[in-house]
């Protein structure tokens, strides 16, 4: 009887030992897989490039507002204006239109103030002139063309835009593509402006030049 009991106990202990060893091997394999997966995920995160506001290529310094904008593409895709990761105007928002598209932003806080578009092909320039005159000092002004932004522009409207810091507005012609960022009360010419002429020999689209894009960091208005 004692011998049988000893055999049973020995078999039990041996079985328990085998099961524990198999379980430990599986645990080690699972843990190894988990740690390997975690290491790969961490490596992927470390190699993924950081994303900056509005998708610009580098971060803005303190007391600057990130912006990115693009003109319209022919008469098909509207312009897009983004400031501080806020899409202010785009075709998706359904607040763009033929002519000159304008977004106003508070120069101190970066908060959006207003968005409007003015038809410079079939519309009247007078409401655009009144709008430009009503802009308050210290306001950031962003503009982008869509389809045609120049036909109805007169000298008064061009002068008001030039006072915002534009240098290309005097040469803006029929179906040119143009984006601009300036400010009311600016003392110098703005460095943020892109202009491409409508030229049948170089146009990317039939009757229209390629899209112009621009990004940068706007200095915050100081008291």
Automatic annotation (TrEMBL):
**Which Gene Ontology CC terms are recorded?**
extracellular region
Organism (species): Galbula dea
The identity of this protein, by name, is FAM3C protein
Per the record, the major location class is: secreted
| Residues in ILEI/PANDER domain copies | 98-185
Origin, by domain of life? Eukaryota
Read off the InterPro entries from this record.
FAM3, ILEI/PANDER_dom, ILEI_FAM3C
What family does the Swiss-Prot or TrEMBL record give for this protein?
Answer: Belongs to the FAM3 family.
* PROSITE patterns in alphabetical order: GG_LECTIN (PS52031)
Question: Pfam families, alphabetically?
Answer: ILEI
GO molecular function annotations of the record? carbohydrate binding
Swiss-Prot/TrEMBL keywords: Disulfide bond, Lectin, Secreted, Signal
């Amino acid at each position: 009887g004692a011998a049988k009991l000893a055999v049973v106990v020995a078999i039990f202990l041996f079985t328990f030992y085998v099961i524990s060893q198999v379980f430990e091997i599986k645990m080690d394999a699972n843990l190894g897989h988990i740690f390997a997966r975690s290491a790969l995920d961490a490596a992927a995160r470390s190699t993924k490039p950081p994303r900056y506001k509005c998708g610009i290529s580098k971060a803005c310094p303190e007391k600057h507002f990130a912006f990115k904008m693009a003109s319209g593409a022919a008469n098909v895709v509207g312009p897009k204006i983004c400031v501080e990761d806020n899409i202010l105007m785009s075709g998706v928002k359904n607040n763009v239109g033929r002519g000159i598209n304008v977004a106003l932003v508070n120069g101190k806080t970066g908060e959006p103030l207003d968005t409007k578009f003015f038809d410079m092909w079939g519309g009247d320039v007078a409401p655009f002139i009144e709008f430009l005159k009503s802009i308050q000092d210290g306001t950031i002004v962003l503009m982008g063309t869509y389809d045609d932004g120049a036909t109805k522009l007169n000298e008064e409207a061009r002068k008001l835009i030039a006072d915002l810091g534009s240098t290309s507005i005097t040469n803006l012609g029929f179906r040119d593509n143009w984006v601009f960022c300036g400010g009311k009360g600016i003392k110098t010419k703005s460095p943020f402006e892109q202009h491409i002429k409508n030229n049948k020999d170089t146009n990317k689209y039939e009757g229209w030049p390629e899209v112009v894009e621009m990004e940068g960091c706007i200095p915050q208005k100081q008291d």
